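Usage

Read records sequentially. Each one opens with the input sequence:
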Amino acid sequence: MNNMNHNANRPIGVFDSGVGGLTVANAIRQVLPNEQLIYFGDTAHLPYGDKSRETIIGYSSRITRFLLEQQCKVIVIACNTASANAYDAIVAEAGNKALVVDVINPVVEYIAGSSTYKRVGVIGTKGTINSGTYVSKIIAKNPHLTVSSLATPMLVPMIEEGFIFDDISNAIIRSYLSKSELSNIDALILGCTHYPIIRNQISKFFDFGVDVIDSSRIVANHLRNLLVTSNQLNQDQNHHQEHKFLVSDFTDYFQVISKLFFEENITLEKINLWK
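and closes with the structure output:
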């Protein structure tokens, strides 16, 4: 019994190539208010989207080992590119020490299990889209769905440079979303953790007629169910540890942009795992 409680008090590790995964961390905080988060943003190596599979696996494995050293009970891969390329390696690294949640599988389950969708679009980085993970996994679970994908590589730098809700971002969004791959879709999967920031602009482009799927909320709900079924949900409202936010490289700009993703001021701390 004590062992169960000890596990429940352990933190949840969340990592991403940068600060985009804070959208996932933010959703987890809202769905699971008693849990402590340890966030690691590998800002020294971003973006992951144009790195080789081997390189992504190398970075992800090192970060996973670090989060296991912090006694995390779950590793959340809050990065679509790492989820697409390194999931199996991270599961192997975690072994029986921690549960692993990625940002792709929960969304695949959600979409494949829905009876309302017929044509689904996916947007993401080149790394995520070129891996074909979303398309192959959704079709494997629900062959009746038509799934088309489009790499939208300019969206992440656009968001990270602060071009949001302005003419430049609207022009880029319009240029991507009007491509033939996304015509006549009923749902659009935001296959990158940066994209929830521009979710309203995307919905607006489709005149709110397309379900724009924000994976961060789906992932947070999936994580909650997983903690309940594995008996590791933290029920102790008095056990409130501070969340920790770590990055591998620091610029003042990340500090500013992090508030956009997490919806409150947070202090980013620099730590080098590659010494």
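Summary fields computed downstream for this record:
- The domain at 105-215 is CATH 3.40.50.1860 (Rossmann fold).
- The CA atoms of residues 132 and 222 lie 22 Å apart.
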